[in-house]
Amino acid sequence: MRVSLQWLRELVSGPEGAFAPDALAERLSMAGFEVESIDDLAAQAAGVVVGFVADRAPHPNADKLSVCSVEVGAAQPLQIVCGAANVRAGIHVPVALVGATLPAVNLTIKPAELRGVPSSGMICSLTELGLGESEGIAILDDLLASVPAVGSPVGPSLGLDDQVLELAITANRPDGLSMRGIAREVAALVGGTTQFSDAPAALEAAPLAIQAPDQAAMEAGGLFTMTELEGVQVGSSPRWLQQRLERAGIRPINNVVDITNLVMLEHGQPLHAFDADQLAKGTQGQLHAPALGLRQAKAQEPFTSLDGEDRQLSADALVVTYGDKPIALAGVIGGLAESVTSSTQRIWLEAAVFAPQAVRQSARSLGLRTEASSRFEKGLPTETTLTASDQAVALLKELCGAQPVARWVHGRAQAAGHPLVLRRDALLNLLGPVLVDGELADLDDGRIEQTLQALGCSLQSDHDGWLVVVPPSRSMDLLREVDLIEEVARLVGYDTFACHLPDPLEPGGLEPAQQVERRLRRALCTAGLQEVCSLSLVAAAEGRLPLANPLLADYGHLRDDLHSELLAAARRNLQSGQAGFWCFEIGQVFQVNGGPENRQLLSGVLAGERRSERWTTSGKPKVPTYFEARGVLAGALKELAIPSEDRVLAGHGLLHPGRAAELVVEGRPAGWFGQLHPEHAEAMDLPEATFVFELDLQALLTSATRKARLQPSFRPFATVPASERDLAVVVPNDAKASELLQVMRKAGKPLLEHVELIDRYEGEQVGEGLSSQAFRLRYRHPDRTLTDEEVDGSHGAIRAALEQQMGAQLRC
Q: Which of 209, 329, 435, 476 has its CB surrounded by the most CB atoms within 10 Å?
């Protein structure tokens, strides 16, 4: 956005020193509107004055050169050699004196001798002054209604007495794409007030009836208006209007189009003028407002735009139609056939709001971005649409002699938003005190009110604070009390607030869950796994949530698992010559279970060997077995004292049917672990010994943060000897060792200190359908040595419990 300081001074009243370009640029940048450059137009004509060509004679040694005697207000006229074909005696021209520098052509004027004739100075063209392309020298008599005195600076009369700030406007501040929006910002920054003048309503509006297929598209935008004006006299715009457009980087075309562009620059509301007589050709010479429509384009529908390009539209494009014929690409560009030309006498002036996503999609479908589309796609308030249209009508009446005939409206402007409550205490507590003459003080109420009122807010004060009604231009981003507080802080200046500590001071630190998660990451790294981070955006697949506006098709959906990306990473690493890939990731996944939800998962892959262990195998490769790989995960969970139990897992499509387990934490399923199915391993070019696990992180954190596990407890080393016994029992084949262990621990209390499985046997000696499981049990009393009778009693209780609850028989 290019902002003219002269135009800005007309919209904002404030201290004159506040509009110094460098100082204002600094304040705007600190407030969030980065100033990328300052274009000093006065420098383009520094040292250039008004001259009068008193005499012109042909050059004695060159046919295409002239020797001119030019008066510049000095005692003697200058002799200047000029090569322009349109130079003649009796005209006023811009003259660059010796020593002047012309930045537009990077030229410094020096005394010269051209073909033997001395020349002191240069008669300038508009191009050399940076005012666009031109042929020949600039003749001020033709350009200006009143030529300044000879010898006076030429810059002010040509509009070269201004400074233009180039602002970078962020996507969340569409109001920054209008002079009024920037004026409000500047008024709040410099402590001034805005001075806007709105034109009266042009005429009463009649409802615009729209057919059903087009009605939904119009209602998505919110407002569509069309104003008919007749008696239009199309011609060149006044110089002041052309200068404002040129400083904003827009090329003047004719007075009608220039007026629509000027209003767009001031209000941020794009307008478009159609030649009404050209439209009428499509309805037998009669204009009918109901013939207007708004619909999606048809595939390969032809359309010739204002820039003269013949385009083939796609179904993604939204078009304004008349008699079902496209006359404009909605919010982007108009059609060439209906454009305003020198023969136009009657126009239809469109002022509308289109859905931002529809305009963005239309512009992208054609690879075309315009001043209008850049505003529509950020979102515009409907409250200012008719205001902008009324100002354009007033200017058309003044500069083009036009008379409004009729106006049609479909939709209505949005009602004013609900007042926001801004509490004084909330603002002061959040922002803290400001420094006033070296002393800390609360921010003054007057400064708060001036800041918000300069933004266009209306305030109603009460004893606790204010009721604030936000202006339409900011209705999309000032939605909460904290938004208003942020505006005050931003515009008053973050640097004016003092550094202070919260009161009362409270110690900080990590939450228990955060501590456990960090410990879990360290434990997994200690176990030999490396943490990785994969993209949360993936390609399309069944059950995955799509993004509404993806940048790339391959990254257009949210992931619903972690292991897929880890397996892909394992394949890439192994194909690159790595001997193994042992990695884990903790991250969010997004799933649809009756509605979108997200979960935190821990997932890992152990593929191939662990390179750092080759020293234990004399340099020979060694891949882990199922139980070794399961032990890696078990060791990491043991560091957090998380009790886990394995249950047989069948039917998991990703895992080997006989080497998969469901992990149970505190009696509830928390995830799974297993060897990758051979078919998947072959398809993904991974080794057979590839192991995968995926766990619900919340279940692990909940278990690990229980007080009994989170806080370490002291237990002294035993000072009395233990007594160990072995116990072998015959049980059915489907009896789980974990169930036997649970029965023994419960029955052996309080003397049983430890029990573990040491052997499992199946064969003819124990019978068909049976297995022998042997355990080693350790008994100990904390204070004294146990007697044989005490150990025998506890051991017998365990045997009886196994026999009674598990049907176990003592193996002889």
A: 329
